[in-house]
Amino acid sequence: MSNTDLKNMSISDSWHFQDEVTYSNTILKWINEEVVRQISTSNNEPDWMLELRLKALKIFEWKEMPKWWPDLSRLDLNEIYYFAKPEWAWAKKTWEEVPENIKNTFDRLGIPEAEKKSLAWVWAQYDSEVVYHSLKQELIDVWVIFDDTSIAVNKYPDLIKKYFSKCIPISDHKFAALHYAVWSWGTFMYIPAWVKLTEPLQSYFRMNKKSGWQFEHTIIILEEGAEAHYIEWCSAPKYDENSLHAGWVEIFVDKNAHMRYSSVENWSVDTYNLNTKRAIVQENAYMEWVGWNMWSWVTMLYPCSILLWDNSKTDMLWLAFANKGQNQDVWAKVIHIWKNTTSNIISKSLSKWGWISTYRWLVDIKPSATWSVSKIDCDALLLDNLSVSDTVPNIIVGNSSSTVGHEASAWKINDDYLFYLRSRGISEDEAKAMIVNGFISWVVKELPLEYASEMNVLISMEFEWGF
Fold it and tell me: Which of 181, 217, 202, 192 is nearest to 112 (CA)?
């Protein structure tokens, strides 16, 4: 391989490893009623869930593709596998029970390290199935539920029926309908009233199937006064064939509760990452979003907080990295419904090798949301002369007592900073990596130590190949 080839290849390719897996079910491309029924039967679902899936399938078939989104012309939904069940598809309670090849995959993603650090709970989803999970006894003793959503449909039917699809309706858009037709597994998390967790709960999602998918469905419920932190890590190998991730997150934060949701999405460059995440926040409750997106070919991710009652609050801290061959289209959306609600939105975006980072946001302060406050801070760092960073604000204020502050900036790496660092014996690429790490520190410092270290390593690896 020539030096030119090396410079044009991201070192992140070393992360795009893949596994040879035998699947126990018949693998069918495209989505139809047969596939939907196969998924429902495999998960032993009640009739009401199958009816919801079939209704969603019909909505998907007649709804048009979104017009305003980034270009999806390369995504052929006829060439996607929507369900694949590994032959060893049952969750293991100890790490030693997991098949050796799958264990090696998650070794590289960090699950054993998480266990060694005694984190509260860790589980891993591989394609359509959960392969590993463990839960501390002290959490079971206080009635914390942290289970697979597909299992929870039968174990906790009243809770699932009460909350499933109530935050994100099945008719929200075409990919919402697709998700509800074919979703598999995901996280079901329930924290009883006044239970305050001191350690984060974690999930790892691995997409391995070529021309594959992942449609996990996460439901998080915090009762009154509860506190919790949930972390998701997502990855996929590189196949040079399109893959699709359309995971859903529905969060319900009751009054006086505090929820932090952290997400690290490290998909391969042939993945379309079309996520929807939404939270309903009650009186005096607090919803915190912390996120990082990188590698996928197209990302469309628009986390939303609905501040439903008095004195509710949300903070959104998001970072997107658009590298070679990528379009990162991310958005924060806050709807202020009632009085004295507060939102704080901070976005950081990086664009490199001539590619696109777009940040959209909607702040909608309803007439009923008197004396509310929203602050928006959007910063873009362009790492060459060809990259593009766009901001698309949409601010609606329906009363005269509320306050909105908006600040946006776009800049390149300062030559004076580079000169100063290079004069201290630091190479140009190392200096650029240091400046970028400083730029993203707002996000990184909000992650647990092991995740923050990983973020810094991934950024530094990118700069080893220069510009």
Answer: 202
Asked if 332 and 307 count as a contact pair (C-beta separation under 8 A), the reply is no
CA–CA distance, 321 with 328 (Å, rounded to integer):
7
User: Would you write out the chain's pLDDT as a tens digit for each of its 467 residues?
Assistant: 333 333 333 334 444 444 444 444 445 567 889 889 988 988 889 999 999 999 999 999 999 887 776 777 777 777 777 766 655 444 555 556 655 655 565 555 555 555 545 444 454 555 445 545 556 677 888 899 988 898 899 999 999 999 999 999 999 988 899 999 999 888 899 999 999 998 888 877 665 554 456 788 999 999 999 999 998 876 655 544 567 778 899 999 999 999 999 887 766 666 777 888 999 999 999 999 988 776 666 777 889 999 999 999 999 987 777 666 667 777 789 999 999 999 999 887 777 766 667 777 789 999 999 999 999 988 888 777 777 777 788 899 999 999 999 887 777 777 787 888 888 888 877 787 777 777 777 666 666 655 666 666 666 655 554 44
DSSP state string for 247-316: -EEEEEE-TT-EEEEEEEEE--TTEEEEEEEEEEE-TT-EEEEEEEEES-SEEEE--EEEE-STT-EEEE
- Residue 66 gets which letter from DSSP? P
DSSP state of 26: P
Residue 350 is which amino acid?
Answer: L
Interatomic CA distance for residues 439 and 458, integer angstroms? 15
Q: Which residue has the tokens 């100890």?
A: 94
Give the whole-angstrom CA distance, residue 320 versus residue 348.
7
235: β partners:
206, 266
Q: At 81, phi and psi to the nearest 5?
A: -85, 125
The CA-based diameter of the chain, rounded to the nearest angstrom, is 69
**Non-local CB neighbours of 176 within 8 Å, separated by 6+ positions:** 168, 169, 170, 248, 276
pTM of the model: 0.82
Question: What is the C-alpha to C-alpha distance for residues 285 and 65, in angstroms, rounded to an integer?
Answer: 35
Distance CA 450, CA 381 (A): 25
Q: Residue 365 pairs with which residues in a beta bridge? A: 336, 397
Q: Which amino acid is at 282?
A: Q
Three-state DSSP class for residue 133: strand
3-state secondary structure at position 334: strand
